[in-house]
Protein: Glucosamine-6-phosphate deaminase
Amino acid sequence: VYADKDSASKYVADRIANLIATKQVKGERAILGLATGSTPKGVYKELVRLHKDEGLSFANVVTFNLDEYYPMHPIEDQSYVSFMKANLFDHIDVVKSNIHIPDGTLSLEAIEAFCQSYEQKIKDFGGLDLQLLGIGRSGHIGFNEPGSDHRSMTRLVSLDEITRLDAVDDFKGYDKVPTQAITMGIKTIIEAKQVILMALTQRKAQIMHRAIYGEVSKEVPATFLQKLTHVEYILDNQAAELLK
Ligand code: F6R
Structure:
């Protein structure tokens, strides 16, 4: 638990930077699973600073984003492609062909094959070295909403009502929020070699209490992380309010 969002974000950015640097020394690639949303913004800001001011290179980094709305065109303001470019990719030296984000433009028939190839690509790179997660007020990780199975893989899902309500400001109206998304599965996430779940602000206090102390169940998909030995929960004081 960190005093505020800046110190929590700095800790996570340093963890990621150390992983990248350790891999670089060995001549290896760092395979990162990345999240969008308000939570990781401070992490990305600090990574950009480390790149600009302290010479951190992303030349050996491969990224896989957790999810994308469906349908969604990459050039839309609300797309996770736009988010990642604005907050991270446009400001660092990551190689464009090393960036992977679920494709929100596919036809319905093409989605299953895409999802299988997304999983295969992660495997081909030797698996995710580190998966960064936020948590939704529904208890989702990625867009694995309540009801998601712990064996689930990358797939098309329906968004929970709480999740859609939380996206109203971004889309300027409930009716404009997509009802579906493509997300990595719970299995995809928990197979990462390290998992860091971040939760910031008082809005996340209630769900963090359930995620950490609640019974492990599909009702709160984040509870599946309780079983892992390689997970860290990084919270600010406000998100940890009910844990004390
Ligand atoms: C985003 C994602 C989601 C968010 C979650 C929290 O790629 O997978 O699980 O992490 O909805 O969103 P924020 O951080 O905006 O509260």
Summary: The chain has one domain: 5-227.
